[in-house]
Amino acid sequence: MFGRYTGANEKVKINRRVVCTGCRQKPNMEKCRGCGKCPDEIKMVQQQVGPGFFVQQQQQVPSRERCKNEDTELELHIEKGMMDGEQIVFDAMGEQRPGQIPGNLIFTIKQAADQRFVRENGYDLRTATEIPLKEALLGFDRTMTHLDGHQVRLVKSGGEVCQPFEVIKIVGEGMPHKVEGGGHSDYGDLYVKMNVKFPETLTEDQREAIDKLFPADNVEESE
């Protein structure tokens, strides 16, 4: 997800069939030793279907060219904010076949799972962080690290109690919006779920202090 937040260039290596241009002239060259038979060529041939009648038909014929598998390194330009399903196309970089124009090589973007952030609704991000019970009750001013390393401030003012699993919305800290031309115009929002860590045990003094601070509420049972 880091690459689609900041933008990135990634190198990939592919192996594809190519038509050897040297075999026809010098088939005994060192680089041609690994070359083999190419797929049949598709050519238009004239066939007689009756007295004085001829038709043009496609027909597979053995190729006199030689082919080999070749490693090629490509560089993928991943733009900021690219979505799952978007494609990066390399024209005419598909497998070669004698007598035909190679097809395109197409890479489809698929997001790998991130340990901390989840992308949703296109450009929003969702994550979670843990805070101690003391901060949930008294407020906090803390930071968390974003995808590119910059710090995001999380604030809960004193007097406001942070509820367990409360979600804090931080405007403009989501994914960049991808626009035509490779730029970006805006960012989505970041939603942070606050997981409150409760103590597993309490001392007797702590129990007494809490009992004094939070007297039992008289809650009427509903019928």
From TrEMBL:
<protein>
    <recommendedName>
        <fullName>Chaperone DnaJ C-terminal domain-containing protein</fullName>
    </recommendedName>
</protein>
<feature type="domain" description="Chaperone DnaJ C-terminal">
    <location>
        <begin position="5"/>
        <end position="199"/>
    </location>
</feature>
<dbReference type="InterPro" id="IPR008971">
    <property type="entry name" value="HSP40/DnaJ_pept-bd"/>
</dbReference>
<dbReference type="GO" id="GO:0006457">
    <property type="term" value="P:protein folding"/>
</dbReference>
<dbReference type="GO" id="GO:0051082">
    <property type="term" value="F:unfolded protein binding"/>
</dbReference>
<dbReference type="Pfam" id="PF01556">
    <property type="entry name" value="DnaJ_C"/>
</dbReference>
<dbReference type="InterPro" id="IPR044713">
    <property type="entry name" value="DNJA1/2-like"/>
</dbReference>
<dbReference type="GO" id="GO:0030544">
    <property type="term" value="F:Hsp70 protein binding"/>
</dbReference>
<dbReference type="InterPro" id="IPR002939">
    <property type="entry name" value="DnaJ_C"/>
</dbReference>
